[in-house]
Amino acid sequence: MLKLTDELIESTIDGISGFIAAGFSQKYDIPLEKSLELFLSSNTYETLSRKENGHYWDSIPEIQEMFFRETE
Fold first, then answer.
1. Which residue, of 7, 12, 26, 63, has the greatest Cβ tally within 10 A?
2. What is the pLDDT of residues 18-72, one digit of tens each?
3. What's the DSSP call for residue 17?
4. How many Å separate Cα 15 from the centre of its chain?
């Protein structure tokens, strides 16, 4: 059985963040470093990183779309 620990949650958030930053970098043809910087300073990341709200269990494409809309 999978035990939900802080380490697992943080790892999941990191993975989602990397996936979204990579997709943004590719879609808008900007360096990955810049894309990651934008994501980590976004409201979307702030929401995702609040462990108590559980957004790390949400659909990754949905979180990605939230970030893309935020940057428009």
1. 63
2. 999 999 999 999 999 999 999 999 999 999 999 888 888 899 999 999 999 999 9
3. H
4. 8
Write down the pTM of the prediction: 0.90
Q: How far is CA 41 from the centre of its chain?
A: 11
Tokens of 16: 């989602």
Backbone φ and ψ for 6, nearest 5 degrees, come out as -60, -40
Rounded Cα distance between 12 and 70, Å, is 22
Q: Domain limits of the chain?
A: 17-50
Given a cut of 90, whether residue 3 has pLDDT beyond it is no
CB 63 within 8 A of CB 19: no
